[in-house]
Amino acid sequence: MLTIAGRTFKSRLFGGTGKFSSPRVMKEALDASGCEMVTVALRRVDLDNPDDDIMSVLDRKKYLFLPNTSGARNADEALRLARLSRASGGGDWLKLEVTPDPRTLLPDPVETLKATEILVKEGFIVLPYMNADPILALRLQDVGAAAVMPLGSLIGTNQGIMTAFQIEIIIDQAQVPVVVDAGIGAPSHAALAMEMGADAVLVNTAIAVAGDPVKIARAFAMAVEAGRDAFEAGLSKKGVEAAASSPQTGLDFLR
Amino acid sequence: MQYVMIPQNIFSIPDFTELALLIDGCSENDIERALQSDKVDIHGLAALLSPAAESFLPRFAARSAEITDRRFGRTIQIYAPLYLSSFCVNRCAYCGFAADNKIERRILSYDEAEAEADILHQRGFNHILLVSGEAPARLGMEYLEEIARRLRQKFAAISIEVQPLEEDEYARLFAAGITSVAVYQETYDRKVYDQVHLSGKKCDFDYRLQTPARVAAAGMREVGIGALLGLADWRLEGVALGLHLAWLRKHYWRTALTVSFPRLCPAEGDFQPLVKVGEPQLSQLIFALRIFDPDVGLLLSTREEARFRDGMIGLGPTRYSAGSCTAPGGYSHPELGGEQFAVGDHRSIREVCSDICRKGYDPVRKDWDATFQVN
Predict the structure, then answer these.
(1) Contact B16, B236 (CB under 8 A)
(2) What does pLDDT average to over chain B?
(3) Rounded to whole angstroms, how far apart are CA atoms B160 and B323?
(4) A203, CA 20 to 30 Å: which among A245, B91, B157, B190?
(5) B74 with A42: Cβ contact below 8 A
(6) Is residue B2 packed enough to be buried (19+ CB in 10 Å), middle (13-18) or exposed (0-12)?
């Protein structure tokens, strides 16, 4: 079972709350996905307001809320948001996003590392969104990140795992869970990440904007399970030549 | 946090006769290529804005909708304007607030402004746009800073659309809680600009043109640009907007950008639009800019009619105003006149939001947080 900061998760699929056509569709899709952790943009919600459209439809007993600092351009802004979140009852868990370029929304490695270090010291459970840079993953782990969240491709693009080479290294080296975040556009992408050995994936846009968000949420849940099972089972090696499934290698000469 | 800026070259806009050449040379082939490609450059934008592109409009809409959907999801942000003052030192031929128009002028006191804001807050608005005529002696930095300080506890995001300011003034307003600045060039055609701006500081085309760069340099989160449609060739305004967007992206990569599409409607003073821009033209412009820049926020205000705004949901625009009144004090005192222009969509925020929901989109009232910039 997946464990992050001492908490166990049955589902290795994490959900998001952005871009849905309505809070009702969001709730139904998240329920269908079976996920137990959902990320919520602090900029979108009013944590103090019990009538907030997102907060009011999701059952906080069922889902662990992972507030995120989406929109923060530097460490200072992320720190302010994180502290506000905790003060308003958002809890200790935090998905750290520091994205100074509003166009690509790529995470700033320098500011992310700086903010992670400070927030960990303040007692936050920090899951930083990061570029798929293996050394950065190690540095974040060293300053106390509870997990690392490398991107598969640019957020919202549905391009899949474009960073496979780096993610493989990160998975290989990391001692904390690796959650592939951003760019996962199809259940097959999620399955691939899980087959590679990722501990979990986070999917938002591909569910929120799909023709039938509830149905695709279920598809993602199955893909994540299939990918994980395949990883645990041990995938057969890829080969360049055709190999018969019942080898007829003659060993009659052996005495 | 202060960012060190590399010395910038200055944004300039080619003469419209030169821009026209970009569009004149466009073939259907260019349009097709722009529609098929993931990256559209300024030539692609010119193709999308060309007369030959008119027959492609349904395909434009589909492409624009697809891009908007992926980038912004099934959401529309909701905001309301709050008019602070109708005093203005400029004479702009098209504007109801022009200095020589005989209307009753008002400037809201701090308390009056707060009362207006309270009404918007109660109606469910979380993003507001403070608007005023340009009269710095009455409505200057001190006034804006005080308003920002008074309102920032109630609103997630406060934008301003007031006279152009200096870079250090924008930095002060950002610290006071202002999130973004809208400053429209009105027209990028220098010749027409000179014709319609009869007197006042606004006559300085270049000072206004550099304003978005000053806003961005000051560290504002977002800058909004726009052209007032009905003054000059809208296709060329579209190309100019594209050039301005691309330049701002290159030089101020941390700043989010938005474009507005104010279309001239009859105002006090009976100015008639110099060129006709119909709904098909306006939608072509919106689709073309969306395809050119997938990340830009696109605003569609209550200048437009409810039918058109409903139809455009999901096709490109990402922000709608609702329940707007364009006279200072008009929310508290609807009986007062003195609007800057007559709105075309008279629905309340509730009606706008329920129509957005009916179209399968989520009307988002909060998508920012004051905490980003102030403790």
Answers:
(1) yes
(2) 91
(3) 18
(4) B157
(5) no
(6) exposed
pTM: 0.86
Amino acid in position B326: T
Separation in Å, CA B124 to CA A218, B78, B252, B360? 34, 10, 33, 20
What does the block give as tokens for A184?
């996962």
Q: Most A CBs within 10 Å: which of B5, B292, B371, B375, as the mutation test of the A interface?
A: B371
How is residue B165 written in tokens? 């300011």
Q: Please give the pLDDT value at position B370.
A: 81
Q: In 10 A of CB A188, how many CB atoms?
A: 15
CB within 8 A of A168, min separation 6: which ones? A196, A197
Helices (H) and strands (E) in chain B, counts: 14, 11
In percent, how much of chain A has pLDDT > 70?
96
Alpha-carbon distance values, B5 to B8, B138, B254 (Å): 8, 33, 11
- Residue B321's nearest CA partner among B261, B372, B281 is B261
Give the C-alpha separation, B3 to A170, whole Å: 32
A18: which chain B residues are within 8 Å (Cβ-Cβ)? Answer: 73, 75
Task: Identify the pLDDT of residue A249.
Answer: 66
Residue A89, pLDDT score: 81
Within 20-39 of A, beta carbons closer than 8 Å to B belong to 20-23
Report the DSSP beta bridge partners of residue A66: A39
Lowest mean pLDDT among B55-69, B79-93, B161-175, B254-268: B254-268
Beta bridge partners of A93: A125
CATH number, span B65-370:
3.20.20.70
B198 phi and psi angles, rounded to 5 deg? -85, -35
- In 3D, which of B314, B126, B177 has the Cα closest to residue A43? B126
β-pair type (A7-9, A2-4): antiparallel
Q: Please tell me the distance from the alpha carbon of residue B181 to that of residue B170, in angstroms, as a whole number.
A: 9
Alpha-carbon span B203 to B186, nearest angstrom: 11
Q: Is the dihedral of CA B78, B80, B81, B82 positive or negative?
A: negative
Q: Where are the domains of chain B?
A: 65-370
Q: What is the DSSP string of B58-101?
A: HHHHHHHHHHHHHHH-SEEEEEEEEEEE---S-EETT-TT-TTS
Per-residue pLDDT tens over the stretch B255-269: 999 999 999 876 555
Q: Which residues of B touch chain A, with CB atoms under 8 Å apart?
A: 1, 69-75, 156, 221, 249, 253-257, 295, 357, 360-362, 364, 366-369, 371-373, 375
**Average pLDDT value for residue range B299-303:** 94
The model's pLDDT over B204-213, given as tens digits with 9 standing for 90+, comes to: 999 999 999 9
Give CA–CA dist A185/A219, Å, rounded. Answer: 12
Rounded average pLDDT over A70-82:
94
Closest CA to B64 of B303, B309, B283: B283
Cα separation of A147 and A118, whole Å?
Answer: 16
Q: What is the mean pLDDT of residues A199-203?
A: 96
